[in-house]
Amino acid sequence: MAFESDLTLIAIAGRPDLWRFAAPLVWSDGDDSVVVPRGFITDLASIPRALDWAPDLDRTGLSRRPAALHDWLYGGDRSRGKDWADKTLRMALLAEGMSWIGAYEYWFAVHAFGAHAWANDNRVLRAEHFYAQADFDEYMAGLVPEL
C-alpha cells in the first residue's frame, strides 16, 4: 500500500479552502489502484476548526494525500462505495506514517459523520468538480474506449 506519486496542488485564487490537482495522484493498495485526475478540486481534510488542537487532525500534515484521495473517492470515483472509500482513507493514512490511533480517528469521523456528504455531494461527476472544462473533458475522454 503506497502512493506512487507526489501530491501536486495549485491554490485556487479567491478560494483559500480549495485546491486543484496540477498532476494526477496515484494510490495502489496492491490489488487495486486509484488515479485522481489533473484538474479535480479538493478541500483536503474537512476538519472543523474547533478540532485544530488535535495533533493527528492536522490538515497540513500526514493527512494531505489521503484526504485528497478520499475527496476523489467521495466526489469522483464512487464506484466502490462509501465503506471502501473510508477504509482506503485509513489505509492511506497508515501508509503515510500516521499512528493507528490517528488513522482510526479520521476513519471514525468520516465513517460516522460522512453519510450526509456521501448521500448529497457529487452524486454525478460534473465539469464543475474540475478546475477547467478542458480537465473534465480530458478525464471523460479517457473513460470512453476508442473504436
Give a quick set of tags describing it.
147 residues, alpha+beta, three-stranded antiparallel sheet
What is this structure's SSE topology?
Blueprint: E1 2-3, E2 9-12, E3 15-21, E4 25-28, E5 33-36, E6 41-42, H1 64-75, H2 82-95, H3 100-113, H4 115-120, H5 133-143
Antiparallel strand pairs: 1-4, 2-3, 3-6, 4-5
How is this structure best described in words?
The protein is an alpha+beta fold. It has one domain. 39% of the residues lie in helices and 16% in strands. The protein contains five helices and six strands, in the order ββββββααααα. The protein has helices at residues 64-75, 82-95, 100-113, 115-120, 133-143, and strands at residues 2-3, 9-12, 15-21, 25-28, 33-36, 41-42. The strands form two sheets. The chain has a three-stranded antiparallel beta sheet, covered by helices on one side. The chain has a three-stranded antiparallel beta sheet with strand order 2-3-6. β4 (25-28) and β5 form a beta hairpin. α1 runs antiparallel to α2 (82-95) and α2 (82-95) packs antiparallel against α3 (100-113). It is globular and about 40 Å long. The mean pLDDT is 87.
